[in-house]
């Protein structure tokens, strides 16, 4: 039964309550499920350096444009490599709403920059401009790119707080590579011989990168590396990626081939910094901290301090620091004040910790013991689509993956207890669509940018101890990237009351439907969001009024999924207590199980 608040009262027969209430078969066919290949991973631990590990095609060994001593200043086009690097079906393209993705950019610092409206206005090197317009097919810069690109071109240190999916990675890689493009012969470390038969262990060189990008997770590091491989095409600058979980042997050998741009997780970088034969940071011109708020909260302070200090040791003292983050907490401000120049540029793109209207957010009341059936109903009733399902524990990720697989659905799971090989394989198969349903913990919530993720499900809502409302925003940001549309469904019950107030404000801000059980939390008057984003490092105010939506106010949030998401009409799907699902031109996802 359902009470006046839309909450489900449990029947006496608990076993029956756990059975899925909806259809027994999907309305439309998913791809065939694939059995988990346990033999593939047996007796092949990811942390060692044995032959079994090193023969594996690690993501850090992905193809890239390789330096050849016979090239002139501008290397030739490589048609076959272009097909590998710029596969259209796996690229996240600006969606039909990209032109409406107009958010207010606030220049917080006293130092201001003039934004660009088109890439051709930025004074980029012709090779870099050709890559982003012809191969990547970027039509226009995103808001964060409009400001960061000219700031880096002018040689400024930069702090940028931007929403997830805003194009941050390209915002810093494009100008950095453009500025280094014509100077690599003067600035770069000696290159190894280009012979294909070279003994790399004996003839290799020490890695002395010009650019260092630090990321908090392995998955984000590989995501940035993938973007760097594309943007480094024909620049003569060689990107590399090092991260924990994978054996160090192949990563060292890759560094011995030369490294101009290094993407790294802090732990593995510090390990290799202790091996002077392998890596030195004396030539650094740029240090980029991506997802800085995550790094300063994960006990990386000591490692990060050592890495940042290394960036100041280059002989010419012309080093630039760039910091990107969804929020700008006190620890991140302290880090910035210690290492950045006094005339740095600080930008806020939209409201810190906010999301946008092109994600249709649906919050459904589901008691814990009914979640499996509710999820099965959800996946069976909606058209098959690439779907990310978030849970709060590694054990639940595996249990839910097993449940979905045994229900005939093509699923996989990824979490920190998986070996690095398993994590890379899971992400690869999800990206390729072989297993279009992935159950994961927060390990994927930050930065992962996969094309065509149409649906995010919060099977477990993030509690305060799991990141709270900020984690919710990061999770749902895996869909509706760069002007595309997507849907986020969240299972909510009494255990999630600690984020109910902030969740309701997010829904109101984005003009989403407010379910009955959250109506009592509707704010009165102007929306006020709590955040820790002010400049002084004393007591933070309890909250500041949200930034004016500016040009966003004209964006039509009603098109696409579900029509007018600001209404209380039916606009999705629903399942009633008899197990029959109703398609209603839309339907009511604000119901309950």
TrEMBL record:
A motif (Q motif) lies at residues 117-146. InterPro entries: DEAD/DEAH_box_helicase_dom, Helicase_ATP-bd, Helicase_C-like, P-loop_NTPase, RNA-helicase_DEAD-box_CS, RNA_helicase_DEAD_Q_motif. GO terms for molecular function: ATP binding; hydrolase activity; nucleic acid binding; RNA helicase activity. The keyword Oxidoreductase does not apply. CDD domains: SF2_C_DEAD. It comes from the Eukaryota. Residues 149-346 form the Helicase ATP-binding domain. Residues 117-146 form the DEAD-box RNA helicase Q domain. Gene3D superfamilies: P-loop containing nucleotide triphosphate hydrolases. Keywords: ATP-binding, Helicase, Hydrolase, Nucleotide-binding. This is RNA helicase. It comes from Viridothelium virens (Speckled blister lichen).
